[in-house]
Design brief:
This protein is an alpha/beta fold. The chain has 13 helices and 21 strands. The structure holds cytidine-5'-monophosphate.
Amino acid sequence: MLKGKHIILGITGGIAAYKSVTLLRLLVKAGAEVQVVITPSGKEFITPVTLSALSGKPVVSEFFTANTGEWHSHVDLGLWADAMVIAPATASTIGKMANGIADNMLVTTYLSAKAPVFVAPAMDLDMMAHPSTLRNIEALRSYGNHIIEPAAGELASKLVGKGRMEEPERIAEILSEFFASRESLKGKKILITAGPTHEKIDPVRFIGNYSSGKMGYALAEEAAARGADVALVSGPVDVKAINPRIRVIEVESALEMLDACLAEFPAADAAIMCAAVADYRPAERADSKIKREGCSDVELRLVANPDIAATLGKAKRPDQKIAGFALETDNEAANARSKLERKNLDMIVLNSLRDAGAGFRTDTNKVTIISRSGSVREFPLKPKSEVAADILDSLFSPE
Ligand code: C5P
């Protein structure tokens, strides 16, 4: 999978830089074209001569070559790359990346990179456990960067704990698996619903809910990154879709969402129903703002909205799949399973409101995926981007 891929290998000043030589060897052997970018302190640990000999390219470290004035364009490099991997990534570089402190070629290249970025932290255990490091790593994760978690073991300081850079063989494998997954949904069309619906009471008021759309948008980004064409039917949210393979269809109410889904579903290979659709809408919508003067109480009569997932479930062809979500407070697994049956879904993603960090408005989620065949997989609390990957893996390559 690495053959012909353009990879920027960023090396920073840590003892683990000696392992970067092996990583470079492995990437080149697998057929990748590798451009090494090294920080000034990285050169204290490993010599550019070794790196340029192995990569077959001059190593880039400064913004320009002093004697010729030749400028090294971090912008061009950022565009050239199919992936950037920073291994080892020190606490200092992670902090600079997290905060946009672009005082060297590596960080400017990182800020210019359009390609996916992998970060393999390596540092002493106390530095690794410091709240500042943890916060910066979380920031990188929230930018969509992939963190290659350091392992626990003996460190250069002779202390034992978490901070060892992941082994080069595993890093090369992670990159290879990543490129394989990028192609896995090529040619597939996926319909995803996201966000809340707003059910109008009058021109200025509505009934809504706390859904932020983050989970649905994370699913859309992950599916598009794997090569799928995504139709994202979205209620009113603040999140924006980034990947150009995502076509956003903005809707407001459940009825509008249903219409959009009915139009899109026939062409879809799969639908993922992630929206928090309002169960009820006001029976009447006032044409002008309901006034307070003259009426102390207002009674709202609500009527049931259609169940979009169940409607698509009825229309589903044998070559189509549907995944739904269930947000439960009690009797979770049993309720989720009966929802799966009732709506004719192939898979249901259960998130419990009891779990801290799961559900509405958070950047993380903790889910259990239940398939039609009865398999139940529980996942730990993870960023929504990673939960999205688990959901797509389960839907398209069930075990
Ligand atoms: O029945 P409940 O609302 O708990 O079901 C949740 C699942 O059904 C979610 O996948 C949600 O997107 C979908 N749903 C829907 N239309 C509705 C209600 C829920 O598509 N009116």
